[in-house]
Specification:
heterodimer; A: 28% helix; elongated; B: four-stranded antiparallel sheet; 2 helices; 18% helix; Peptidase_S8/S53_dom_sf (chain A); serine protease (chain A)
Amino acid sequence: MRVLIQLRPSAEIVAAVLDPGVTTTPADVADGLPGVVLDPSFTPVAVPRPVPPAGGDPLSMNQSMTFSLAAEDASVLVRGEIADDELAARLPLLSAYRRDVVGVFSDPVIEPNITCGGDPPVGDWHDVERLLDVGGLAEDGLDGAGVALAVLDTGINLEHVVRHLGREAVLDKERSWMPGSVDGTPGAFEVDHGTMCAFDTLVAAPRATLLDLPVLLSRRQGGSALDGLLSDAVAAFAHLRDVLTAQPEESRALVVSNSWGSFSPRWDFPVGHPGNYSDNPAHPFNVIVASLEQDGADILFAAGNCGRDCRDGRCAYPDRPIVGANSHSRVLSVGGVDVRNERVGYSSQGPGRLSQRKPDLCAYTHFSGSKAFGDDAPDSGTSAACPVAAGVVAAVRTRWPATRLTPGQLRVLLRRTAEDRSTVGFDYDYGYGIVATKGIRDALRRKACA
Amino acid sequence: MLLVTVRLPPEATLTDAMEILGLSQEEVDIGYGLVSIDPAHGLYVLRVSEAAARRIDPATGTGVYSDPPIEPFGPPR
């Protein structure tokens, strides 16, 4: 987290900060603050001391005051960063360790144009192609050919996908699956959210083979017309295990893209109850996720749209909205950035509930792509970011099956090569950074030569 | 309805699970069936009514879990 640290150094240092003829650096003011990475680009700023009137309340800001910039009165602000997972411990210890630390304050992003739901598209899917250097991936033979890419969603309309991509796409009906309560044909569902997801997987992996699993169309008892039930996802994952184990072991490759989750604890047992889902790795769905990953599948989940800046109105968890399998240690949890590399305001922030370091990374969203929701509507939500990242994973799998690079090793590779958006590595906004293919390609070339 | 896990030998059927758990056809989602979630450990899951789930004896090594709705993450509303 980026922070502003207010210090009261010696009067000589304050005088230097105040003197426009003298150059001072953050290190002159605040050198040696443990666990704080100072921002050298931020010139220390003197802050005047509020002086109450004679006889006034020394602790009240609600009175007429004067402000003193005298060197013996003023304090100084510097900017730095503290690792998100150390904030709670470091904040109280800093002022105890250093008597010159007056306070530590958040330094939130104040961009006026952070992307939110309802905003028009930011760029288009060709920008995403360019940012992911899809041409470079193809040069290395990483185009998804022969890789099974399962989209668990509302069903795919392949004709729409092909029309808007402007090229052919492959969907395997035989290995697709649907809950018993769903009528339809794989690849021929109404254009909706699942079609958007399928389109977005093919941006980076144009030759991947789509598998259509419309779990969100379930009409099972206890569900509604607009959602599915977690039990349908359990059954879908059991089918995918059969798909995976039917593949020859030496070429095993299955990528599973999940742009869905639970918005509310209302239908769940409370946290701590043995039947709970959100925080319980022993829940059957969390077990089957671990089991499928163990067998060699790459599983990606959207982080969710409950980011603090402009959360989806359905978000009902009071905090830590990355829940259940979306926060599983054996999946990649994907947040969203726009093509300007800025986090979209609705992208859920960590920590996760099953595993704290979530999201793992971010991928592109809120661009004009599939037009599944209309010509002017973007492919949006972390719903779009997840399949974009899944496409990158499928591209890698073209030449790197799970026997050569386990799902765990591939997750480490993606985290290590992500474009870091902070100065301290992992943070709860971007995870390890934005998925970046250059580092992936370099690392794979090195590994191939080893 | 709720999810109930049960440990069974390989190739077990829904009928086997219902017999062990003492469940009738009316209490079980027959269409959902018996789903293997961890073959290495013989762990299966089935959907049962809340009343039946409450009746199941935990000593049989079973677990009772929530089955919450799931929704697409987009477009943000």
